[in-house]
Amino acid sequence: MKTTKTTTASKTEKEKKRATAEERVVPVVDTAAVSPEDDGENITYVTDTKSDRYYEAVGRRKTAIARVRIYTKGTGCAVNGKDYMTYFPLATLRIIDAPLKKMKSMDRFRIEALLSGGGLHAQAEALRHGIARALVVFNQDFRKRLKRAKFLKRDPRRKERKKFGLKKARKAPRWSKR
To answer: Which residues are within 8 A (CB) of 74 and not within 5 positions of it... i.e. 6 or more apart?
Structure first.
């Protein structure tokens, strides 16, 4: 259900932030009615009171972080606003399906993810980790099977830092006697 209420543009930022997740406030501007000297009094705020139900989790790998939302309605997977097949072009990076295939629920959820940091492979593994965690939030009975398949374990391996006096983390300069 959508309700509209017309108000002036003097709506403060605090009032906008107070809108809950169920009640998103979206400004709609009538461009034909707005003139350059207008103070923005022709802005209509549309309040959407009905939102899709989702389950959220965070997955990590190296320096990659994936914020994952699983929606119960719809199918497909969007990563940073793109389809995951275009975001991960190589077949080896399409490991994100593994938790869904394990639970036999490929066409049951719509997935939206925001990825940041790391490379493509680390992002793919972080996304797989986030999807597995979100599935556990959805249904606790999935935990045992996902844990056995090692989808819930965060891979702790990271790049070791470079030490002073060495060329890399452990590579020393060539030794010479004199």
So the answer is: 52, 109, 110
Torsion of CA 35, 38, 41, 42, to 10 degrees: 0
Compute the C-alpha angle 130/51/17, nearest 5°.
Answer: 85
Please identify, in words, the CATH class of the domain defined by 54-148: alpha beta
Q: What is the dihedral of CA 104, 107, 112, 118, to 10 degrees?
A: 50
Identify the burial level of 127 via C-beta atoms within 10 angstroms of its C-beta, where 0-12 means exposed, 13-18 middle and 19 or more buried: buried
DSSP conformation letters of 114-151 = EEESS-HHHHHHHHHHHHHHHHHHH-GGGHHHHHHTT-
User: What pTM was computed for the model?
Assistant: 0.68
Q: How far is CA 104 from CA 54, 140, 153, 174, in A?
A: 19, 15, 20, 55
Work out the number of other CB atoms within 10 angstroms of the CB of residue 120.
15
Domain spans, the chain? 2-48, 54-148
pLDDT tens-digit map of 109-161: 999 999 999 999 999 999 999 999 999 999 999 999 999 999 999 989 999 99
